[in-house]
Write a structure and sequence with these properties.
The structure is a single chain. α6 runs antiparallel to α10. By secondary structure, this protein is mainly alpha-helical. The radius of gyration is 21 Å and the shape is globular. The chain is built from 15 helices and no strands.
Length: 436
């Protein structure tokens, strides 16, 4: 069965993004996010996550999903295959992977959301790039208009948990039984999905359609042709992303409250679009650097992770739960942000070594092979004998809206002097609780 040729720049971008995914997710695995950590080193580590990773990588993976959708559609059309049936089967299997992952390992899984939202792409597959672009803009803008209006009309929209929530989560994840962890994860999953239906699905759909637009334009198939536009996007993305992310990092790390509703609403918009701007910078920069011989040699190892993105992502959850939950080392709530960042770097390096070793013997990762078998696609063969089958897999970066849903609750509790627990990056009691 013929499969479309892989584009290495996309694999490199996936591999790079998986590091950002790990940096964000390992914090959610390691400790309640409202737990306070002292020390300059810890504040620097938190700043790196807040500025460079939080809210940047799930839009990138959503964009890649849209690009992959178009590539699969174009390949199916060349083969005269039933694309709707094939893609629907892929979404269903991806949904099953997500369900198992969310139940056993991570309540902030995003695979199920991608599978559900991916259905919408089928109805837009024949639309023009121009239509897809404006659909993306509308999907991005409208929810934030509603959100800002809600902030202005009812600034204090947060709720509080129990006074011992943080200590309780540390006890459950760090020392509880498998049954207790399962129940707590289900509770966290409900909170996570509330944020998804409030905000996240609009941004995912927006990046899906933008990715479909990019795919139809063929930008990653002919990067040199779009060099000038990509360079402009890189520069503009960096300049637009720096101010908002700098303000957010400082106010969150130092827990600076802003209780003036109009200013808070303005900052919410600034934060939301600053994340997307920096994500645009990452995408453009990786695309351009991958075309330079020196940089390509440096970035090439990342492509192995990109080719095994599903395996890599699930492995990250397995490793993190083993380190931090009670059925493993039970270190939940005990590892500082600085140490957590170092652990993330070690895990990523080991995963890179593993992916390079595996792909020297097989054409796809273990879970990719299982998924391909479920799709009734090609089975693995020795890497030297055939090209890698193109199976577009998405990985999960916890969405910023979902990360911030409980941070909002933590902010309300901080004002009351309560200890909170959340599934959000470490921003203790900050004004930007609903940050996108």
């Amino acid at each position: 069965m013929n499969t479309p040729k892989r584009i290495q720049a996309l694999d490199i971008l996936r591999g790079f993004s998986l590091f950002g995914v790990l940096i964000v997710n390992i914090e959610l695995f390691s400790t309640p996010q409202d737990k306070h950590w002292d020390g300059l080193v810890n504040h620097i580590a938190q700043g790196i996550t807040l500025f460079g990773a939080e809210g940047k990588f799930y839009p990138i993976f959503s964009l890649l999903f849209g690009i992959g959708f178009i590539m699969q559609m174009q390949s199916a059309e060349k083969r005269a295959s039933n694309f709707t049936q094939l893609f629907g089967r892929r979404l269903f299997i991806l949904f099953l992977f997500g369900v198992v992952h969310s139940i056993l390992f991570s309540h902030f899984d995003i695979l199920t959301q991608y599978a559900c939202m991916g259905v919408a792409l089928l109805f837009l597959r024949h639309r023009s790039p121009r239509f897809l672009f404006w659909a993306s803009i509308a999907s991005l803008t409208i929810p934030y208009i509603i959100k800002v209006a809600a902030l202005l009309l009812n600034h204090d929209t947060t709720a509080s948990f129990g006074i011992n929530e943080t200590a309780y989560r540390i006890s459950i994840y760090g020392q509880g039984s498998v049954r207790e962890i399962f129940i707590q994860r289900f509770y966290d999953l409900i909170t996570y999905y509330r944020a998804f239906f409030d905000h996240t699905m609009y941004k995912i759909f927006a990046m899906f359609t933008l990715g479909a637009c990019v795919g139809k334009l063929g930008i990653f198939r002919d990067i040199p042709r779009y060099h000038t536009k990509l360079r402009k996007a890189m520069i503009h993305g960096l300049l637009a992303g720096l101010p908002g992310n700098s303000i957010y990092t400082i106010t969150t790390t130092l827990s600076i409250p802003i209780d003036f509703a109009p200013l808070d609403a303005a900052l919410q918009l600034l934060y939301a679009f600053s994340d997307l701007a920096l994500a645009l910078f990452y995408v453009s920069a990786i695309a351009l650097l991958s075309q330079r011989e020196t940089w390509h040699a440096i970035l090439a190892p990342l492509a192995s992770l990109g080719r095994m993105s599903l395996t890599t992502y699930i492995m990250q959850s397995v490793i993190c739960t083993t380190i931090f939950y009670s059925y493993g080392l039970g270190l939940y709530g005990q590892i500082s942000p600085a140490s957590t960042l170092i652990i993330a770097c070690v895990i990523y390096a080991l995963q890179m070594a593993f992916s390079m070793f595996w792909l020297s013997h097989f054409t796809s990762g273990p879970l990719e092979l299982a998924l391909a078998t479920a799709y009734l696609l090609e089975h693995a063969r020795p890497a030297k004998d055939c090209p890698a089958p193109h199976v577009v897999i998405v990985a999960s970066a916890v969405t910023n809206e979902q990360q911030q849903a409980v941070r909002a609750q933590a902010r309300a509790s901080d004002h009351q002097g309560l200890a909170q627990s959340s599934a959000a990056p470490r921003g203790k009691g900050c004004h930007n609780a609903q940050r996108d």
